[in-house]
Design a protein that fits this description.
This protein is α/β, with parallel strands linked by helices. The protein is built from 9 helices and 5 strands. A 5-stranded parallel sheet has the order 3-2-1-4-5, sandwiched between helices. α4 runs antiparallel to α6 (107-123). The two termini are 28 Å apart.
């Protein structure tokens, strides 16, 4: 299958991290709102499988009232899911590692914990399997933290072999 081929390609290039594109791309809601065109290009390229976590779908749904971009993203996803695009699909209920929510955690942190958990399921503990892309500027740590991607989330992702990149940096 295409996924097995992509995974084999990653395995053969495991030592050369920079030259390898992860077979799985997991965008957050900010990626969909700020860079929908890039996600569409990735989806049409046939070079990777885009997994849309359930937490991202829920976030977009929560944002749609106040954001035309969130509504556009939802419309795009609905069309792709209905069409059966094999390069873009929603996370299935069983595709998680069953993280228990920490007490006193913000909703934003919980969303990213769920997204990273989805990434962990697909990475299977291997490096270069999954890249999570975000529309958040990761260089601005304070802004990233207020949106849910604080240093604890970034460290957790790194410990789980999940690469996180700004979507615009990922395309370079």
């Amino acid at each position: 299958s295409e996924v097995e081929s992509l995974e084999a390609n990653v395995a053969s290039h495991d030592n050369d991290e920079k030259a390898t594109i992860s077979p799985y791309l997991v965008p957050d809601a900010f990626s969909f709102c700020n860079s929908l065109r890039l996600i569409q290009e990735f989806s049409n390229s046939g070079k990777l499988v885009i997994i849309v976590p359930l937490a991202v779908i829920q976030s977009l749904d929560n944002m749609k009232k106040g954001s035309s971009r969130a509504r556009q993203a939802i419309k795009y996803l609905e069309i792709q899911f209905k069409k059966g695009n094999r390069w873009l699909r929603a996370q299935n209920d069983h595709e998680r590692s069953m993280i228990k929510r920490k007490k006193n955690q913000s909703q934003e942190n919980w969303i990213y914990e769920q997204i990273i958990d989805c990434c962990c399921y697909f990475s299977e503990g291997k490096t270069n399997m999954v890249t999570m892309v975000t529309g958040i500027d990761l260089r601005d740590e304070e802004s990233a933290a207020t949106k849910g991607l604080n240093s604890n989330m970034l460290e957790y992702a790194e410990n789980q072999h999940v690469k996180i990149e700004n979507i615009k940096q990922f395309t370079r």
